[in-house]
Amino acid sequence: MDALIIEGPTQLSGSVEVSGSKNSALPLLFASILFNDKVCYENIPRLWDIETTLKLLEMMGCGTEWDKEGGRVAIIPTVKSKLAPYEQVKKMRAGILALGPLVAKYGEAKVSLPGGCAIGARPVNYHIEALRKLGVTVEVEEGYIHASVVGKLVGAEILFPEVTVTGTENLLYVGVMAEGKTVLQNAACEPEVVALGEFLNSCGAKISGLGTHTITIEGGPLVTPSHPVQIPPDRIEAGTWVSIALATRSAIEITRCDTSQMTSVLAAFRQMGAKIEELNQGTCLKVIPTERYNPLHIETAPYPGFPTDMQAQILTLLCMAEGRSTVVESIFENRFMHVAELQRLGAKIEINGNVATIEGPAKFRGAPIMATDLRASACLVLAGLISKGTTKVSRIYHLDRGYQRLDEKLRRLGAKITRVAE
Ligand code: EPU
């Protein structure tokens, strides 16, 4: 296992390029199962979660090619086994995205229940209940979801009890292959869902209402895409860079982003007093450092609200604000694991249920700390950059699951950060 050693505090300078979006790449890669011929992808980020996804597809019998430097992946969807085993799904909960395409294309799937993780229980009951409405028989036995279709998939109206991103994605795959009309109410409108829906539409699907909470799907045949599928830039990585720039009070340019997907995040940073310019038709952000930050009240919410995947990063930044801030985590029940680690560095944070109260400004001093999940890892690296002295962040495999070479990118911006084996 690797750890990162950070010498702080650091000021950074220069320009950093945002990689392809993890949460967009994963559903688009699983979509290859729906086709008969090779599907090609570009701008695939170099991440552990991509490694796990390709491994899973290979175990099903698919051919895969990955040019890691060039960011290109090709998948030949020759599925023989409809099994997504626990050994892979436990490494990456998004393995649940195998369920929809396997059921849609082959009428059967055996997919491991993902289980809980560091941020909450994360059940998949909404996926299962929705599939049943479309005519899928689903049994849960010995830790596996056994899904089968006797006869054919028939469109239905589904009301999700809560907005679910991968739940909506699983239903898009199945809805496009079902006979007739499927309506998804309280559907997720995250940009990653829109990207998947638009890709399917480019292959002949008839999906309307993408980007809203009501999605309508008319089932019909799909044609294999003739052009490579482009993975959009990672809005969470871009937001993480803005928080790093603001925390280290560094003038940084962040390129290859899509600021239209970052409205709530940029609004929150600006409310704190940050100066952020959006350039080149919203593909570039220029962060201008500020001396003082205002405290904030933030609540995470489904898109277009403030993303839970940016909660840890803004919470860390709010430790530098002058006064009391509150952060409410409304999506996951246990997503404050980073707080105990930040406290080790000197943060003054109190947790009450799903509310964190932060007293700032705090002075951080380096200490050994441990990453617990992906976004928590990013906030701990950010905290290390502003701490005086040496911070060692252990268990950074979480970071490598979802950020392409964050330490290398930081080094190029001037950070004193080294990777060591533990
Ligand atoms: N939920 C249920 N039952 C379900 C599905 C969801 O109770 O069947 C609950 C969850 O427990 C949670 C809420 O509904 O409280 C929303 O969960 P959602 O299903 O939307 O989460 P997800 O699809 O498992 C995706 C991202 C997460 C991101 C969330 C929320 C991917 C691969 N993962 O997860 O990303 O935090 O949406 O936006 O797209 C990350 O990248 O670090 C990450 C965790």
Name the ligand types: uridine-diphosphate-2(N-acetylglucosaminyl) butyric acid
Sequence stretches where pLDDT stays below 50 over 5 or more residues: none
Strand content: 25-35%
CATH class categorisation of the largest domain: Alpha Beta
**Second-tier CATH architecture of the largest domain:** Alpha-beta prism
| Total discrete domains | 2
SS class: alpha/beta
Sheet having the most strands: 4 strands, mixed
Integer average pLDDT = 96
Radius of gyration: 21 Å
Topology, number of strands: 24
- Could you give the order of strands across the largest sheet? 22-23-1-24
Q: How many helical stretches?
A: 14
Distance between the termini: 6 Å
Indicate the percent of residues in helices.
25-40%
**Superfamily at the CATH H level of the largest domain?**
Enolpyruvate transferase domain
Which outline best applies? globular
Defining traits:
422 residues; four-stranded mixed β-sheet; UDP-n-acetylglucosamine1-carboxyvinyl-transferase, Chain; binds uridine-diphosphate-2(N-acetylglucosaminyl) butyric acid; alpha/beta; globular
